[in-house]
Task: structure prediction
Amino acid sequence: MELQKPRGTRDFLPEEMERRRHIENRLRQVATRWGYGEIKTPTFEHIELFTLKSGDGILGEIYNFKDKGDREIALRPELTAPVVRMYVEELQRSPKPLKFFYFDNCFRYERPQKGRFREFFQFGVEIIGSSRPESDAEIIALAAEMLKSAGVKGDLHIGHIGIVRTLLKDIQPEDQGKIMRFVDKKDDKGLEAFLDQINAPDDIRGKLFRLIGLRGENAMHEVQELVGEIEAFKQFKVLLDLLDVYDVEYQVDLGIARGLDYYTGMVFEIYCEGLGAQNQVCGGGSYRLAQLFGGEDTQSTGYAIGFDRIMEICESKPEVSKSIVVVSFEDTRKEAIIIARKLRMHIATYLDVMGRKFKDQIAYANTIGASHVVIVGKNELDAGKVALKDMSTGKQELLSVEEVVDHISLTPISH
RNA sequence: GCCUGGGUGGGGUAGCUGGUUAUCCUAUGGGACUGUGGAUCCUACGACUCGGGUUCGAAUCCCGACCCGGGCCCCA
Result:
């Protein structure tokens, strides 16, 4: 094999593309019905956009290069930063909230694995201009709705960074960030060692460990005991109430931290079975990034769905669609083209381009699984008609082109 | 970056205790059948991932690279 695709990339054949489009359209439809508008940002951006957001640590996982004008360019590794950049650059004075969705490819230089590629696809949603519990709830409910529409069942875990941060308010901000990273990794030992190192008060330390271990039903009571009626707690409670109204199933999980500093409030992740180590299909939360990119401080909430991962586990298949093969003879090829043109206004229509004989054209119709064959022969044309043959029953009748269209659109597919 | 399993025509495989021309199935093109499909037969096409080593001789044994799968790290 002389040439092959770069590592971690994929070719999608028609059958696979049909499945992908089918799911993509469902997600699109949900987003549209919830009032979100589709946007598209460039495939590449200035590299600072991503280092500003995520730190220099991500450089090792980014596809970057210098262009001919000596600019440092990066293929986007995710889409939240570009969306916020777009907002700061041209939409700061637009009516709030802004509600966007996107579906695009992203690039990361990582070791490929199940559910992990170097070029992968994200379907994401952002609300810009609000991070009230109402928008947080809408975002989570929308995420749940999207996965449902794709036929994917997942476990939704919701946490709140604001609550954990309030507990740590007497600790240096940089140290807080480090603590959150240990929490995100669920690295209790590392966290303990770090708390020793910065001489964290015993009382904070004990509360922190209890807090990040909280899960499920009684978690909220214990949170209240640990931190009291603080603002973040009240907001979180409103959010959870609203989610009940949305009829969304969730689990409180204060151990979710999502590592990065710009997450400020609610954070959530959705996990699925059957994906091996890459079991997270969706992640998001409320954040503040606009200021970092030179805009006014703005609250936002959003998430991204790992499209390739849901494709891996979703069962849903597009319906088999009807198709026609127009079969002709040496002396009726031109008439066949004219008839095919008419049929193509209504249904997928194939025409022989291999110079095949009559019989082989029908055999071809059979191998591609066409539901019908339209026979254009001299006998039929003399009567001003064509013959429509149903490939599954083998039955054949003489019809005009218009009748063929009617006939096919009215008949369900037989198997 | 680390650990681990694996790479034989387009797909699926046999061979892999080294030894003629690498097996079989399937798919694809052409033909036998000149206006009716799935069958049959003929025919064509087509592979040992790459590089090095051991050997008289390597698909087979050894080493490295590349790629794929699984796990770790990471996961914005």
In short: The longest strand of chain A covers residues 98-107. Chain A is about 40% helix and 20% strand. Chain A has a mean pLDDT of 91.
